[in-house]
Design brief:
The chain has two helices and 21 strands. It is mainly beta.
Length: 274
């Protein structure tokens, strides 16, 4: 009986060891595995009929170290024969897929949006060339902190602010491209959507929070989307063409929330009956 009990104990220990070994071999902790990353381009438009920018792709710096002291750069090309993009069209819910690839899980701590050489805009029906402010501006680097988990898919948005990115020289003879871009992950931010009437008022829409501003335009139907908003209270300002009046209101958002506003009808100035 004694020998039989020892045999059972040894058998139990042996089976336990095999189980632990199998668990270790199949362990998929946060530091292993792959995640799918989609890079999507959107626009905060400026006062231009059209704006075309050439994109080469995206570079990301990833690391398993939260301090990002060691890691690797991964290049994701914009794999199109014609890499010039009409950025000014990317309003409301429009977005351009710049590229996607699987990357090892961990953290993404830097993003570089890589630009080409051919850029131009159209203003008042005339084409104008766009010149980069300096060669270094061809790589727009952003500090980020996006943590990727195994087997999940992430939409990383790159929002080009045309209003702040395009400047004109004092003599109005040259347009300069100094790209201003922000980045966010869709599942960490919120969206405020709505429709403005009349659509012909072509308003500029701002969401302001603690000095940070997100800008967009409405599309030809009056629809708009303020994307990538931080949770919390925002002041929304709608600045239409004259004679329509400006409109201001507040809205509060939570993480990953989509808020659909009631239709916004712009007012005209009161008439003077005297």
């Amino acid at each position: 009986m004694f020998r039989y009990d020892i045999f059972l104990i040894r058998l139990f220990v042996f089976l336990l060891g095999i189980s632990l070994l199998a668990t270790a071999c199949t362990d998929t902790s946060d530091e292993t595995g792959m995640a799918l990353v989609n890079f999507r381009l959107i626009d905060a438009p400026g006062d231009y009929d059209q704006a075309w920018i050439e994109f080469e792709g995206v570079e990301i710096f990833r690391s398993n170290d939260r301090q990002a002291t060691e890691g690797e750069w991964i290049y994701v090309p914009y794999d199109q024969a014609d890499r010039q993009v009409e950025v000014s069209k990317l309003v409301n819910e429009a977005a351009l897929l710049l590229g996607r690839r699987e990357v090892p899980v961990g953290g993404i701590f830097k993003i570089r949006l890589m630009l080409g050489d051919e850029h131009y805009l159209q203003k008042n029906g005339k084409d104008r060339s766009l010149t980069l402010a300096s060669p270094e501006k061809a790589a727009v680097e952003m500090d980020v902190n996006f943590m990727l988990e195994r087997n999940l898919s992430y939409d990383i948005y790159l929002d080009v602010d045309l209003e702040r990115s395009i400047k004109v020289t004092a003599d109005s003879t040259k347009y300069i491209l100094d790209p201003k871009v922000r980045s966010f992950v869709s599942n960490e931010r919120s969206i405020v959507k709505g429709k403005i009437q009349p659509a012909t008022a072509k308003p500029v829409i701002y969401a302001i929070q603690n000095g940070d501003t997100v800008t967009t335009l409405s599309d030809s139907q009056g629809n708009f989307s303020l994307r990538g908003l931080q949770p919390g209270a925002h002041t929304v300002k709608i600045l239409p063409l004259e004679p329509h009046q400006d409109t201001t209101f507040s809205v509060s958002t939570e993480k990953a929330e989509i808020i659909i506003l009631e239709n916004i009808v712009l007012k005209l100035p009161p008439t003077n009956n005297q």
